[in-house]
Every structure is written in C-alpha cells, then in structure tokens.
Amino acid sequence: MAKRQLTDWVDSYAKYYEQLESPVLYRPWVGLSTIASVVGRGIWLPWHSEVYKGFHTYPNLYLMLIAPSGVRKSTSLGPGKNLLETIGAKLAPSTATWQGLIQEWSNEIISDKGSPMTVHCDELSTFLRQESKLSKMHDQLTHIYDNPSVFEYLLISRDMQRIEQPCLNMIGGTTPDGLKRIIPYEQAGEGFLGRFIPLYGHRVEKKVVRAKVENMSDPTLLSKLEHDLRQINEMIGEFRWDSAFEDAYGHWYLTENGELDPNDPFNSPLMSSYRQRRPTYIHKLSMLFALSEANTLCLEERHFERAKVMLEQTEIGFAEIFRTYGSDYETAMNDMTLFIAERGEVRLSELYARVMTIQSSSEVKDRIDTLMKAGVIKMKNFIDDPYDRLVVWTGSKGAQDADGTINKSRGEDGTQPGKKTGNG
C-alpha cells in the first residue's frame, strides 16, 4: 500500500473546511463518519476472540447534528458526502423510503466489507418520519446498528428481503424540535436514541463572505484527503490493542465510567441507553482515530485519549439537547395535573380537547397513566355515557385547590356530590 500523504486524516479534513460557516464540533465528527462509511465491516475489534468467538465491534456510527435553523447543518454535511461519492461509497438515495432502501440494499453483492450502506441526509426527519409505524422502524434500525450476521425484512407485499452482513452508518441534521418529532419523549429513553451520538451546534462560529484559496494553509489538501481516503477504503483486518491502551481503557471503564451521582444532569433516564454504550463508542472512535493516522491496525493509548476527549467535548451539549425534552414533558405534566386539581373532576373528552393542539392522544394517555400510578387521580365511568369517563382528582389528602387548600365542597375522594358515576 502506498504511503499516506497526511499525518492525520480527520484533523486535515477539519483544517481544509475551516472556512465553512459551521460549528467547529461538526467538522471532525463528519470526518469520522466518512471513515466509518468507507470501511464498513472490513475493520473490526474482536472481544477475546480465543474465548468468545464472533463477538466483534465495528466502527459504524449513527450521528445526529442538532442545532436551531440557520446553524449550517447542511453546510457541515456536504463535504463528507462529496468525498464518499468521489470514491464510490454506497449511499442511500436521499428520497428513499425505509422499504425502498431495504429492497435496494438486499440486491447488493456482499464483499470483504460485508454489505455497507450510509444514510447521509440534510434532514433526518425526511428519512425517519416517512414510515407510519415509526416505533417499528426504530426497532429495525436499532437491531441493524448492532451489525447482525443477517437482517431480514418482510415487505408489505409479503416478500422477504434478506441482507447478509449489513453495516449501516447514518448521519443527518435536525433541530431540537425535530428531534422530538423523530423520537417522541415516550421512546426517548429506549435503545434507539442511545445508539445515536447527538451533536449540538450552539451557533455559527464565524461569518465567511467567501472562501478563498489564498486563505488555505494548504490548497492541495483536498487531493490528499481523497488519496488517503482511498487507502483507508482498501484496509481490511482485525484491530488489536497494546498494553498501554488496555491499561488506560481499563482504568477509565472501572472508575470514571462508573455510577453517576443521582443529581448529575447526565444521569437523566433519557441518557441511560447512551451511557451504557459509552464503552462501545470509545472502541469505535479509537479505531477510527487509528485509521485516521496510519495503515496499521493497532490501538494505542493516544487513540483512547482522543476518543475520550471527543466524547467528553460532545457531551457538554447534551444538557441543551435534552432540556427541551425535559421542560416540555414537565410543563405538560404540571399543566395537566394543576388543571385536574383545580377542577376536582373533569371529563376525559374535555381534557383531550383542552390539550389536543399541543399534545398527541398517546402523550395525554401516557400522562394520565402516570398520574393514576402515582395515586393522585382515578377514573370513573359514566352510567349514561359509555364513550366518556370522568377523571377525578384524589391527591394524597383529597382534592386540592390551586393554592393547596382542601376543597370542602367535594367528598373525601375528591368527587362532587350528585354525579352519576360508576366504578371504573
């Protein structure tokens, strides 16, 4: 194999595109995703291959660039996609449905890299919101992320599609509100979100009137990036790690990656699935940083350190991403709770009508179930209306007014006298 022209591919990628109006954090991540897309399953890290044969970690990634509109998410994504197209990497059609992608993917000829595929789209919602049964699609993407030996999918036509050795990379952009549409709160704590590394871009780092060649430190970088990416594309084999990597990773895994303080914002239930996969992300990123540097397949301590720093810098933005989830859910729950408590009792149909413009029926049902499990409300059936129910506030001491006092006009169970109700 020819000699590399760059000492570090990811750093050079970020350097070449420094004149783009995009968050600095996005550049190395797009570079890492580009490497992951070209190697597929051709590169892997075995888990104690002499003991547990077949347990491999591959460097594929699901990345989500999250930022308000106008923060140049598409600008950040474009160069990586262009490089992949240049070397002939397999990219999903930008307008493909999930079923359409599966059909095309199943026709691919398996190679030394398995059956790699990359979903590379400016708006992830374009891809992830196409299917009516969104949770089922989430389950399938969760399963395929873990690189099964075979992935089977039954089309609406009842034709079974079979993909041998799939390897899926996914990268795309969305807004904080878009994230909630792609992955509703009820599903956010499940495994699908945990397989994404969310990348928050706070703002455009700088304004550039026009990118100029004379402002580049090395105008030949693009040709060198293409040259070295082609070399990375040809690499096949098994990674090993040296003793220094094992010591550094082992210390981190047994100490720094332990249980979090209950008050730590990173300990949110929304992040539980992600936290469990941090060690896997360290392995994936370590492999990608090693591939970025040289044509050797050995993980060294500096690769672990780069992976760790990369994750930690990225996790700083998590609080901003998930604050939207938390504030929206808590606000909606508090609003619903206060409304029921103030009324003492309210028809279920009236409750749905009050919040239907801001919450889905499934979200309302979820919050009602939560309040029932907490014991602060109960449901009663109407004798003369089988299609509606009465939501009754009970609280811990009976129905309470907004100021926290007991409403004496209601019974001990929080109901008003004289209503025709039956037990639910």
Features:
424 residues; alpha/beta; 4-stranded parallel β-sheet; 17 helices; 15 strands; 45% helix; elongated; disordered C terminus
Beta-strand content: 15-25%
Principal-axes geometry comes out as: elongated
Fraction in helix: 40-55%
- The low-confidence runs, each spanning 5 or more residues with pLDDT under 50, are 397-424
Number of helical runs?
A: 17
Q: Strand order within the widest sheet?
A: 4-7-3-8
**DSSP strand tally:** 15
The pLDDT mean sits at 81
Broad structural category: alpha/beta
Largest sheet data: 4 strands, parallel
Task: State the separation between the terminal residues, measured CA to CA.
Answer: 74 Å
Please compute the radius of gyration using only Cα atoms: 26 Å
Describe this protein's structure:
The protein is an alpha/beta fold and 424 residues long. 45% of the residues lie in helices and 17% in strands. The protein has helices spanning 9-16, 26-39, 73-87, 98-106, 124-128, 134-145, 176-182, 185-188, 191-194, 221-234, 243-256, 272-276, 278-293, 301-315, 318-343, 348-355, 361-373; strands at 43-46, 56-57, 62-66, 115-123, 150-154, 160-164, 166-174, 196-200, 237-238, 240-241, 298-299, 345-347, 377-382, 385-393, 421-423. Strands 4-7-3-8 form a four-stranded parallel β-sheet. The chain has a four-stranded antiparallel β-sheet with strand order 12-14-13-15. Helix 1 (9-16) runs antiparallel to helix 10 (221-234) and helix 11 packs parallel to helix 14. The protein is elongated and about 85 Å long. The termini are far apart.
